[in-house]
Amino acid sequence: MDRFMWVTTISLIKGEFEVIQKHNVRIYDGDNRTNFDCGTLRLTSHQLIWDDQLQDRTISLGLNLVQKTEEVIAGFNRSAKIILYLQSKPTSQEPGPKISSQFNYIRLSFRAGGQSEYYAALCNQLSRKRWITQVTNQRQATRPSGRHMGIVGIERKIEQKQKETQSTISQAFSDLNALMDKAKEMVAIADRVAKKIEEKKGQLSDDETVQFKSYLLSMGINDPVTREEHGYGNKYHEELAKQLATFLKSLIEKSDGLMTLTDVYCMYNRARGIELVSPEDVFIACKLFESLKLPLRLREFDSGVLAVQSESHSVEVIVEKITKIIKSKGCITAEELSPLVKTSITVAKEGLSAAENLGMVCRDDSVEGLRFYLNRFMKDP
Amino acid sequence: MRRRGVGGVAAINKSKLAKAKFAEKGTEIAETQVSQMSQQLEEFRTKLSDFAAKHRNEIRKNPQFRNHFQQMCARIGVDPLASSKGFWAELLNVGDFYYELGVQVIEVCMATRPRNGGIIPLEELRVRLTKAHGKTREDVTVDDLSRAIKKLSTLGNGFKVIAVGSQRLVQSVPVELSMDNTAVLQSAMDTGYASIKTLCDEFQWPTDRARRSLEQLIKEGMVWIDSQNASEDLYWFPGLFNNEK
Amino acid sequence: MTTAKQLANFQWPWQYDFPPFFTIQPNVETQTKQIQAWCELVLDYQKHIKSYAIDVQESLSSPLFHNAKIKRKLPIDGVYLVLNALKDKGLLEWQDKKMSRALLMWRSAEEWAKLIFNWAERSGMTNTVCTLYELQLGNDVKKEEFYEIETWVLKRALRVLEKKGKAVMFDIQPNDNDNSGGVKFLS
């Protein structure tokens, strides 16, 4: 993981071109989880660029540092992965997210699939070694603001515009640096505690776990391992879950017992007006519905769409309704269905998919669109 | 009366008991650090509070400073926008700005989806938002939008920012756009349309591959076909059609 | 024939300059949106040039279905799709079996009925008699939207009111273009 470099502006050198990109790729430092959890991995002829899908950060790895690759097929409880064995870090390399690593390999996990295609493309590019003929080329930034968006660069730009406020800006930047130094320490503490917790699995008291999760929440630190081991949220999210349940009670009946999480986020925040909640807060709160014994559930469809479902209006009820409608109409598209079941097109699409999964309807997929018909291969209900 | 001995069997037993207790609780090490944590947390909160008092405005008014702040946070492993309960959102007020922006982004994307099938240039999104909310909001940059959109993806709606060449598009539907689909988008960026011939010329694709990719896009409602062009059919993206009224 | 002058300040919808708008779309959902947009355009256009009739052949080369600037024309089967969609909405009546001419209301009879009755209530014209002529061209209605309304449309609107028990017509001639006769609005 220490062979990666920070990227401020993605730039391709002369002769470099993009080959393939995939979303939802996770990076492991050797065997360890990192918080480089969800990003778009772009393969070019010269490098791998990982762009965080959730935050402002990008890292890159030169293909010249890859000695060997391996593909690991998915196993029981393990996702498929690509392993990259790396050469040691060149001394002249630009700084990256990690100063040193105990591992000389990284692993890539393709959470949204497409690994084989990617692996083939990667092997292809590695075999061509296009970077060898272009060692002397410098990377030119595509934006005129220059390669180093460091403090000095920004300061100079602003200086030209706001001479009178220069001293304020300088102060702001140096104060920011000091703050970040402190924040870095806080992250390091969290890392150490997280490791200890991992080592002493199952022996941490509830109290301590709660405290630690609260720490992570306050600092905005995402530790995927803690999240997976000890679940989501804390008191704040539990309260939010209860508030959401009350707020959604009548709304969800109006839309037939199913509402997308996106709609929940919008409506709830609009109603709040100020002190809005983050998308992640809403997500975590809804995940807690079941454990808090509230009459709502968070449901994930195959397409990745998340929706809140009223316990009494299970998707099965919607499927029954849809089947009745198709019986009377012969066939239907999601757009035609949505006003009939009083939901958004997204939810109508999911309803049709669910009906298909239950074998009640089948699809006719053409350039004309996606139509659904009653499944006559099944016994008539 | 039993003797209360300090040494001897009693002592050995006591230390054995202590060791056992230690192993049982095994958490003792973690416990110490956990209590240290709350102290550190308070210290940090104070520091952040001071910083906020002095520079909260700077973050609100200055997009470049805001950018820098966000990038620094991301690099040290901290997400100031993760939760409205986090210190950052609470003390710096960055939360409301981005969460509100998120709501507005969703609204614009929903409103324009019937027209563009769920693809809109990031810059067009910014223009529409500025028009809709005009003077009541501060300068919103495309970077701010990108940040807000990244957070929205948590809601499982397919929202994402796609880089196409040197430009950025916002996708707001949970559809998997293949590399080929993205290439078609790239081909259409300047003119608003693509054609089988230009795709085959530009990317050295066989005709079939070009046609398949275009048909996928027609199916998703992102592309309309135009069969009145002299030489060949054209495939237009209403999302890229630069004819804003 | 519509002149450029008539259309000088007409607000064309964004689709009008979008070339594929003139190709009937294969994707069913897209086509539905397309036809809907065409219906709205036809109604707005007709309203703007104050025309209640449409001749299919003529319309093909009118600015409505022919955008010379981008060199696109809606083909005849497209035109029929749009016009029949309007018929399904109750806004269009074919005048002949061949479907070469149609009468078009850019407001439904129901909507006209509402407008006229509202005016009647506002102006205290309930329980008094109005001639059809007065409703079309009288001084009292100069500022109303139904000013200069065509006789056949007016008659249909008044019939709607009659059915609802809100008006009584008398001395009405069967000819659609004959505007003799009157109506009494009931409160």
From TrEMBL, chain A:
Residues 1-138 form the GLUE N-terminal domain. Keywords: Coiled coil, Cytoplasm, Endosome, Protein transport, Transport. SUPFAM superfamilies: PH domain-like (SSF50729), Winged helix' DNA-binding domain (SSF46785). One of its GO terms (cellular component) is ESCRT II complex. GO terms for molecular function: phosphatidylinositol-3-phosphate binding; ubiquitin binding. It is found in: Cytoplasm; Endosome. Its main location: cytoplasm. GO terms for biological process: protein transport to vacuole involved in ubiquitin-dependent protein catabolic process via the multivesicular body sorting pathway. InterPro entries: GLUE_dom (IPR021648), PH-like_dom_sf (IPR011993), Snf8/Vps36 (IPR040608), Vps36 (IPR037855), WH-like_DNA-bd_sf (IPR036388), WH_DNA-bd_sf (IPR036390). Belongs to the VPS36 family. Component of the endosomal sorting complex required for transport II (ESCRT-II). Component of the ESCRT-II complex (endosomal sorting complex required for transport II), which is required for multivesicular body (MVB) formation and sorting of endosomal cargo proteins into MVBs. PANTHER family: VACUOLAR PROTEIN-SORTING-ASSOCIATED PROTEIN 36. This is Vacuolar protein-sorting-associated protein 36. It comes from Trichoplax adhaerens (Trichoplax reptans). The lineage of its organism: Eukaryota, Metazoa, Placozoa, Uniplacotomia, Trichoplacea.
TrEMBL record, chain B:
It is found in: Cytoplasm; Endosome membrane. The keyword Phosphoprotein does not apply. Gene3D superfamilies: 6.10.140.180, Winged helix-like DNA-binding domain superfamily/Winged helix DNA-binding domain. One of its GO terms (cellular component) is ESCRT II complex. One of its GO terms (biological process) is protein transport to vacuole involved in ubiquitin-dependent protein catabolic process via the multivesicular body sorting pathway. It is a peripheral membrane protein. Keywords: Cytoplasm, Endosome, Membrane, Protein transport, Transport. InterPro entries: ESCRT-2_cplx_Snf8, Snf8/Vps36, WH-like_DNA-bd_sf, WH_DNA-bd_sf. It holds the Pfam family EAP30. Transmembrane segments: none annotated. SUPFAM superfamilies: Winged helix' DNA-binding domain (SSF46785). Belongs to the SNF8 family. Component of the endosomal sorting complex required for transport II (ESCRT-II), which is required for multivesicular body (MVB) formation and sorting of endosomal cargo proteins into MVBs. Component of the endosomal sorting complex required for transport II (ESCRT-II). This is Vacuolar-sorting protein SNF8. The lineage of its organism: Eukaryota, Metazoa, Placozoa, Uniplacotomia, Trichoplacea.
TrEMBL record, chain C:
Keywords: Cytoplasm, Protein transport, Transport. Its main location: cytoplasm. PANTHER family: VACUOLAR PROTEIN SORTING-ASSOCIATED PROTEIN VPS25, VACUOLAR PROTEIN-SORTING-ASSOCIATED PROTEIN 25. GO terms for cellular component: ESCRT II complex. The lineage of its organism: Eukaryota, Metazoa, Placozoa, Uniplacotomia, Trichoplacea. Belongs to the VPS25 family. This is Vacuolar protein-sorting-associated protein 25. It is found in: Cytoplasm. One of its GO terms (molecular function) is protein homodimerization activity. The keyword Cytoplasm applies. The keyword Nucleotide-binding does not apply.
